[in-house]
## 1
Amino acid sequence: MLRAEKLVAGYVGAPVLHEVSIEVRPGEVFCLLGANGAGKSTTAKCLAGVLRHAGGRVFVDDVDVTQATANERVARGVSLVPEARHLFGRSTVRDNVILGAWTRSRSERAASFDRVMETFPQLPRLLKRRARDLSGGEQQMVAIGRALMANPRYLILDEPSLGLAPIYVDTILQQAAGLARQGVGVLLIEQNVGKALAVGHHAVVLETGRVALTGTAPEIATNPLVVDSYLGGIA
Ligand code: ATP
């Protein structure tokens, strides 16, 4: 599994994460929930190795990767789709997707590319378009497709539905669930708490950088605090 143990992290000044521990198992969607500023993206960045943490450890399948760089973690099977997507807008969809496998051999790249096109049947007809000309939902598929090119065993999706039309929100979350069914461990950061928990297996709720609740997705979805604060009082 992808495991964070007592992460302490921040930017300048006081830490924003206080001993956050989570475990993402292969084949499951693990929902990381919480209000704006609770520390969800910071946790994601620490797991992916793009932010150094001051305390705690990160393990990938029981290997301690705490000191490993982001590239080394990709090689170990951990890929991050950041909140801002970071596509190259002037480049084509094909080039953006292929970039996700720049360290791999030509044959591995071809195999991954075919798999990504199968996972996102919407992408093949968009391959020659510039990324900046796509809708938000299409861009999100390109961003996830690019991450899948590295053939990750663990995929971190930081607010994949942010700014998307409702029709795409369901599509993206169903695709996340589909990846988990294929054996990928998906860490899903999501503001659509009800929809995330509907596809999730386990969940953690962060509050001001601390784990406030942890449990199975059904337990979290029926927890009175979650119902009141995130689900509009409707369980
Ligand atoms: P959101 O849903 O708004 O993205 P979040 O739960 O992902 O929220 P983080 O982005 O992890 O929260 O932010 C946690 C805290 O760290 C916040 O107080 C935020 O202002 C602060 N923070 C985030 N990024 C930086 C940064 N680059 N420099 C300084 N402080 C930051």
Note: Residues 2-86+150-230 form a domain with the Rossmann fold fold (CATH 3.40.50.300).
## 2
Amino acid sequence: MRLTRYFIPTVKEVPSEAECASHQLMIRAGMIRKVAAGVYDLLPLGLRAIRNVEQVVREEMNRAGGLETFLPSMIPAELWAETGRWQFYGKELLRIKDRHDHEFCYGPTHEEVMTDIVRREVKSYKQLPLTLYQIQTKFRDEIRPRFGMMRAREFMMKDAYSFHVDEDDAATGYERMFKAYEAVFKRAGLKFRAVEADTGNIGGNSSHEFMVLADTGEDTIVSCPACSYASNVEKADVPSPAPYAAATPDPMSEVATPEQRTIDEVSAFLKRPPDSFVKTLIYTLDGKEQVCVLVRGDHEVNEHKLKRILDATTLELAAPEAVQKISGAQPGFVGPQGLKVRILADQAVRGIANGVTGANRDGYHVIGVNEGRDFKVTAYHDLRNVKPGDRCPRCQKADLEFHKGIEVGHVFRLGMKYSKAMRAVYLDKNGKEQVIVMGTYGIGIGRVAAAAIEQSHDANGIIWPWGLAPFQIAVLPLNVAKPDIADAAAKVEEELETEGYTVLHDDRDERAGFKFNDADLVGYPIQVIVGDKGLKNGEVELKIRKTGERLNVKLADLKEKLRETAAMLAAG
Ligand code: ATP
Ligand code: MG
């Protein structure tokens, strides 16, 4: 491909709207342009990268026995109503009305649509297992779209759904998908880790996320240096703590803490450590019931755990008016004493003695608070986030390590959540009706491309992993005004394309430095530089973007040398 007939509108300046490297570089390399918040044009180069991700994903899905389909983005509300998600999915779901006032959503995920196909078409155990997938555009009205393709509102996803006769077969299907995901991310050249994950909005009994390790990741993951435990903090368990040493309880007394609301403020004001505080939060469960949640002052509530324990469809911090009604005080001055709602407490609150909490009176806290005497807990659970210094919940042998990660894929065992709600059943060997067991598996196509850049770039630009590069080789003639250089470059382009490489020939009449900068920015893994000096000896220069290594290669040896280099780059 000749660049004079191609379209790569590169940008020199760092775009001000882009917060992370991949977003900046995708704009600067002429891959994407913004249309609206979280909505992007894919320009030719961007689309080539995306197609490469798709291809890797498609091949591995097919290898794992998946069958490709293509479902609509517009989904009638009735299907989503069957599982209750029409009501509960929240504002991320873009709801649309057609001219007849029929309600639809723009699909953010397709469990309902796929289950609908299967319940209509699958009748017998002989048709199972079945794995159907698609690579298609999703829309999620993200509260904070950012980082370009990483957290877009409209984005490409591969979503697969598997249907099984029983849990055993579903486990086998999950295992096969898990392996396929490892193959995908390996081929994409990513450093990744599979971690235990919360099942969130999708539901089901167990799940893993595939995390690309990168400092700009929005997820925090923990792993144990002594065993194989790795988890998203959303899911990570906290082992139950050792009991507190017995203490002589002080009387409870009120202290004025004007304008001091946060634990840090009150802790500094009263000169008492945060771990002597009982943090008291009021949540609204499923839009109706208020529950009180207690964690120690130096701990954070894990709302994912809370949601699971309460079996909540929705859970949010209660509005100040609701807090006032229950406690008589504004948020910041609330304590568990005398509250007439369910009180759930983290296990570290058990046995807390002579603690500090809100006095249920604006501008006041109480000290000398003792669990059991001054407030009673309905139930104790593991309700907090893990934090640095916590031990591994599995082996208890080492402290957890913390990393940032980008979630590129997510696999779930769904059990019968959707098939039961939608009556997806089959007849077993004995002609008896059984409910189908399901799994669901997603990969963010654009997010994989962005994560690859996040992990592999330098000050000059992108360094594409071989498997995703929009063009594998750039041919860079130094001076196209010289016919022998232009001819040699054209010949190299043709030969390498015939060899099966994807080649971009920068035949623009521009200065060498300008072309080098663009080539480094766009990130072709290999550059073949055609110049006067080399040609005199029948040589070209080969530059490997990843290592910066340069070597002179005889034209006659070029194909052989490239074969070697490509194999090395493909191996990572
Ligand atoms: P996140 O926690 O990042 O919002 P999610 O848990 O909502 O992700 P899933 O519902 O599991 O994501 O979707 C499957 C995959 O789709 C994710 O692993 C991710 O790679 C991708 N994905 C999800 N949301 C977005 C988005 N807004 N932009 C780009 N890719 C996304
Ligand atoms: Mg999400």
Note: The longest helix spans residues 167-187.
